[in-house]
């Protein structure tokens, strides 16, 4: 019989969910959020936008297809979205100790232990998700039997973008056109989607003054946490708006472009984290199924007159992108690179490249 340690998830309102440990056996704290995707835990765990968060998976089984190998292709990870796991921990209803997939080279449990990330299963994730939907995302901590207690930790109180951004300028791909990619916590598939389209990508840190180098277009990546913390990037985007070359943003990039334009943002009750968020392109009847991972949104009512919504969430009416009415600036709150998830909106990369 398999021996597992008892573990509990304790929310800041005092609610306790009991389970068993299957990852690194250490207590940890963070913001508890849920994702309704059925697949894609390697991509989600390595998504920098989950920095500081305890991820709850609503799909009842976790680990059944193991973990793909760690290897690079064209200077970025071939299967992951960054170099390491960013989630503080992961929570599941059931964990499959026997995995099966032709690409798998180890189990999820082994990977979590390797990167010192706790995981617990046996939790009633349906009840937990309903609790978070009713009360909103909240702080929590996982306490593993025999490990020390830890204080609650609020990741939104610090600049997480500065924590996950690259430290030095990097160059990816080659081509006649040059795109500056501001790394606010970029997913590697954004780099793949750009280089596949034949452009040279200059990846710069979040606070780098990219206006000092020549470029044909600016791309602002996704990233974790509160956009109000990312003041330096907003200042540089304002300079780019004045320069007038094409600009595109994804997720955090949508929020930062909006702030540079003069709009405001706010925290969502429990965020959008799934592979099935329906969005409509403003002014049309065209709808798309999108992959999303964010806890903040742009306030449409604060957009200046020269700007307008580009996409609208069909579930709750929140902003899903903006565009300038006359200049080549636009952004999406969802993930058109969608790794993992539907790729219905990858055409937005083509629209950006055609602007260069």
TrEMBL record:
Which SMART domains has this protein been placed in? CPSase_sm_chain
- GO MF annotation, one: carbamoyl-phosphate synthase (glutamine-hydrolyzing) activity
Q: InterPro entries of this UniProt entry?
A: Anth_synth/Amidotransfase, CarbamoylP_synth_ssu, CarbamoylP_synth_ssu_N, CarbP_synth_ssu_N_sf, Class_I_gatase-like, CPSase_GATase1, GATASE
| Residues that hold L-glutamine according to the record | 49, 223, 225, 252, 255, 293, 295-296
The record's listing under PROSITE patterns reads:
GATASE_TYPE_1
**Keywords for this protein:** Amino-acid biosynthesis, Arginine biosynthesis, ATP-binding, Glutamine amidotransferase, Ligase, Nucleotide-binding, Pyrimidine biosynthesis
Q: Which reaction does it catalyse?
A: hydrogencarbonate + L-glutamine + 2 ATP + H2O = carbamoyl phosphate + L-glutamate + 2 ADP + phosphate + 2 H(+); L-glutamine + H2O = L-glutamate + NH4(+)
Q: Which residues form the signal peptide?
A: none
Carbamoyl-phosphate synthase small subunit N-terminal domain residues are: 5-143
Start and end residues of each stretch annotated as CPSase: 1-177
In terms of superkingdom, the source organism counts as: Bacteria
> Which EC numbers characterise this protein's activity in its record?
6.3.5.5
Q: Where is the active site?
A: 251, 335, 337
Q: Give the metabolic or biological pathway.
A: Amino-acid biosynthesis; L-arginine biosynthesis; carbamoyl phosphate from bicarbonate: step 1/1; Pyrimidine metabolism; UMP biosynthesis via de novo pathway; (S)-dihydroorotate from bicarbonate: step 1/3
**Enzyme class label:** ligase
The record's function comment reads: Small subunit of the glutamine-dependent carbamoyl phosphate synthetase (CPSase). CPSase catalyzes the formation of carbamoyl phosphate from the ammonia moiety of glutamine, carbonate, and phosphate donated by ATP, constituting the first step of 2 biosynthetic pathways, one leading to arginine and/or urea and the other to pyrimidine nucleotides. The small subunit (glutamine amidotransferase) binds and cleaves glutamine to supply the large subunit with the substrate ammonia.
Similarity comment text for this entry = Belongs to the CarA family.
How it assembles, according to the record, is:
Composed of two chains; the small (or glutamine) chain promotes the hydrolysis of glutamine to ammonia, which is used by the large (or ammonia) chain to synthesize carbamoyl phosphate. Tetramer of heterodimers (alpha,beta)4.
What is this protein identified as?
A: Carbamoyl phosphate synthase small chain
Q: Taxonomic classification, please?
A: Bacteria, Pseudomonadati, Bacteroidota, Bacteroidia, Bacteroidales
């Amino acid at each position: 019989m398999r021996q597992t340690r008892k573990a509990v998830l304790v929310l800041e309102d005092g609610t306790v969910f009991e389970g068993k440990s299957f990852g690194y056996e250490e207590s940890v704290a963070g913001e508890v959020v849920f994702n309704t995707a059925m697949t894609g835990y390697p991509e989600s765990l390595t998504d920098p936008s989950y920095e500081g968060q305890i991820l709850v998976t609503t799909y009842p089984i976790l680990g059944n297809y193991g973990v793909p190998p760690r290897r690079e292709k064209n200077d970025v990870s071939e299967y992951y979205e960054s170099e390491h796991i960013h989630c503080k921990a992961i929570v599941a209803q059931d964990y499959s100790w026997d995995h099966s997939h032709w690409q798998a080279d180890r189990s999820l449990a082994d990977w979590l232990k390797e990167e010192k990330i706790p995981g617990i299963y046996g939790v009633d994730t349906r009840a937990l998700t309903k609790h978070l939907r009713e009360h909103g995302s909240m702080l929590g901590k996982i306490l593993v039997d025999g490990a020390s207690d830890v204080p609650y930790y609020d990741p939104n109180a610090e600049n997480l973008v500065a924590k996950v951004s690259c430290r030095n300028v990097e160059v990816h791909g080659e081509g006649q056109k040059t795109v500056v990619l501001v790394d606010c916590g970029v997913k590697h598939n954004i780099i793949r989607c750009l280089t596949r389209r034949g452009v040279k990508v200059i990846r710069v840190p979040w606070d780098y003054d990219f206006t000092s180098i020549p470029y044909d277009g600016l791309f602002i990546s996704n990233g974790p946490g509160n956009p109000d913390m990312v003041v330096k990037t907003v200042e540089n985007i304002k300079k780019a708006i004045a320069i007038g070359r094409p600009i595109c943003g994804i997720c955090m990039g949508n929020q930062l472009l909006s702030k540079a334009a003069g709009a405001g943002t706010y925290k969502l009750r429990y965020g959008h984290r799934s592979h099935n968020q329906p969005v409509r392109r403003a002014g049309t009847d065209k709808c798309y199924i999108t992959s999303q991972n964010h806890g903040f949104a742009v306030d449409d009512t604060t957009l200046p007159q020269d700007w307008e919504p580009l996409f609208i969430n069909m579930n709750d009416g929140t902003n899903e992108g903006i565009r300038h009415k006359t200049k080549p600036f636009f952004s999406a709150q969802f993930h058109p690179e969608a790794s993992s998830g539907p790729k219905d909106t990858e055409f937005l990369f083509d629209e950006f490249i055609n602007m260069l």
